[in-house]
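## Example record

The block below lists the input lines for one assembly entry, exactly as stored, with component labels intact.
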Amino acid sequence: MKQPVDLKPFFEPRGVAIVGASRTPGFGYGIPITLIQKGWADRLYLVNAVGGTLHDMPVFKSIFEVPDPVDLAVVILPAPAVPDVLAHIGKRGIKHVIIESAGFAEVGDGGRLLQEQATGIAAARGLRIIGPNCLGVINNDNGFTTIETLEESHTPGSTAIIAQSGAFGNVLLDSLPQRGLLISKAITLGNRMGIDECDALEYLRTDPPTRAIMMYLEGAADGTGLRKSLERVTREKPVIILKSGRTAAGGSATASHTGSMSGDDKLYEALFAQTGAIRAASIDELIDLARVFSTQPMPQGNSLGIVTTSGSVGALTTDVAVTSGLAVPPLSQSTVKRLKAEAPPWMNVRNPLDVGPSGLFAKALSAVLKEPRIDMVLAIPLLPFSVAKLYQRLGFELDKWFGRIASIHADAPEKPLIACAFGHREFLDIMARICGTSVPLLNSPEHAAGALAALWRYSTWKKTRA
Amino acid sequence: MKQPVDLKPFFEPRGVAIVGASRTPGFGYGIPITLIQKGWADRLYLVNAVGGTLHDMPVFKSIFEVPDPVDLAVVILPAPAVPDVLAHIGKRGIKHVIIESAGFAEVGDGGRLLQEQATGIAAARGLRIIGPNCLGVINNDNGFTTIETLEESHTPGSTAIIAQSGAFGNVLLDSLPQRGLLISKAITLGNRMGIDECDALEYLRTDPPTRAIMMYLEGAADGTGLRKSLERVTREKPVIILKSGRTAAGGSATASHTGSMSGDDKLYEALFAQTGAIRAASIDELIDLARVFSTQPMPQGNSLGIVTTSGSVGALTTDVAVTSGLAVPPLSQSTVKRLKAEAPPWMNVRNPLDVGPSGLFAKALSAVLKEPRIDMVLAIPLLPFSVAKLYQRLGFELDKWFGRIASIHADAPEKPLIACAFGHREFLDIMARICGTSVPLLNSPEHAAGALAALWRYSTWKKTRA
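Predicted structure tokens for the full assembly:
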């Protein structure tokens, strides 16, 4: 197993050269704009063979003209030009390179040859390389980024992303803030000529703002290395993985995408189970798990309380929870008695607790959350939007109807609390505000119950490794 | 097995009495408003003991005062008042009743007694009853509805909904138009004192606008009856079912919700498989399956073509497709040759087909859809929203970049075509317009591949029964 590479210069460069800065729209045009906007103009050097100016900055005709300090180069040039450029970068004394260019191992024999050539040069010069065929990195701590994304994706959060694919990572990034997920750092690996997911995991393991790591993997660069990295990292932080290539056909598709061999899925299944990594079954579940793991404490037991306004969804959720290894135990007599004193006759005071249109949601949620025998709570505040609009007209805002869920959690912050709602978009927007940032609002009751079960499994696993 | 009840008077009443019309916000206040808005004022009669006027309409003090023709009564009164009112309704000669009131078998012994009493009166008077503990029906053909929902949910469509739970059905209804699903009819069953899912299935079987039926079931009212109904209906129309009560705890939750016994889940699994019903694993999947089954033709084989801009998502989707029983075969030589002539060197012309940022999405989609060896196509047009915004600024609208997907389908309407996109909301809104109503745009690639596999399995099943 190789020594992990320190990724600090990729995320906190002292100076960065954009080799292939360009007047034509594309990465070479856009990345400098983003870096200037993020306050990096004083540490940014643009390079292309033509020279002149771009975005009101001088363009250096050669990497050799770029002044110190500069410890990172971002290469955005056609693949055939990359080997020579790498040699120049190495000669200039820059040791860290992000190669965004595509056209290497993922396109077949010609590209593979080119990649081997580049790998040889990198080895000879002692270069550390992210890519090729990637988008590079984001560091929301200091605003450094080689990924053009929406401004809202640069709000600092507590989830780090490791993505093998650039495009997929970028589509995700653009939409995560709308799902309530904010990121600390992101790294896209591409063809993994040098830096791989093990390096990324080790770096993020000690990254202070990163509380949970989500990873999209097509195949391991080094199975033994991945096992060792996961074993080290999951003791400290949860790692949630979406792995494609489960089937031969899917595997063959990844080979032509990032040149990865995806391997036997059963081996990965075992690897993830043995190392305490959390496997997501879908993109949506990956996001939902990351939201829960990056915000919620570890549960002290597997007893789930469910509070809802819909008996149907309460039943569906109970099914998923129990199937996933959680218990949905009865409420204590004192809680039942207290709630019954206020409940209308049609309301069944039990767990799952369907309060229907009683208006008791907030009280019930608070009571269940404080129950000593309950270790975690799922709140499912559902209301037809037509009814919500009527309530609003009558002066009943939803934060009165359902309570300020974020504040309710503040009374028992040591227990995981997740909310789940689906329905009309406007209803969901209001509910997201009521839940705040400390209570993730998921849209799928099945994912919500599954995420709490995953949280419980991970907490158990972590205890055995402590 | 009992004879199915004709539900026509519930969906097309000649006249309807609202027993429990009310000046207090709630169903008794809102349902009349909705019916007046939908043009039913001339066939609507409001009844409560106080009389007077409501919504500028006279209120009859007794059901006996309501003039003919009236063949449906909607009861919105506290549970204890219901048995007597049922007797009056029967005496008045009205045979069809929707009881919206809760507080019957679902709340325990007292309610169960009340429900038995009501059942006895209904039997003596020959009444047909939907409910209690339900919201009644929607008929988007004639605008008749006893469910208050958003105006947009009344746009006529081709999916019918059978829901055991009122509140859940209503939350769904409010949000389905935003998911691109329009409904023909809806019926919520509640405690099923009289009308059950078999009656509903039989009625919808011959309902012309209904192309697919989606059903939320907590437990069968009559297992043998459900088997016979499903066998008859699925020969003609797909029935997609979400069934809760998989576990004992979930089952106990449904008992206290609509008084249902959910039964052994393995029996249901077998029942659905043997009758060709399609089982959804989650609420989201229920909706996605309904969208696909209500709009797409039956595939002639199991060969899937995948066209995408993301190699990762292409690989993930191939996994799900192959695991679900579909083939993702190579493209024909002539198609490969034709696409290669235009493709940039980095593009792998294969299936799944990742066109990356080549701009060839529309051409590729059209070519794959027309491939004789391809039976159905999944289009996955992904683009980071930041890039989409840049394209728009440069004058490249997304319908140029990805093609007008609805029009592309029009060239090969005999093959199922589904689109899948996720990411930023604004991007999804634009893509929904590009896909139109004939190509469902799903947000989960896993659901999209799974839905096509379900379509294939159903088409095979249907052939064996023809």
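Residues 445-465 of chain A form the longest helix (21 residues). The radius of gyration of chain A is 25 Å.
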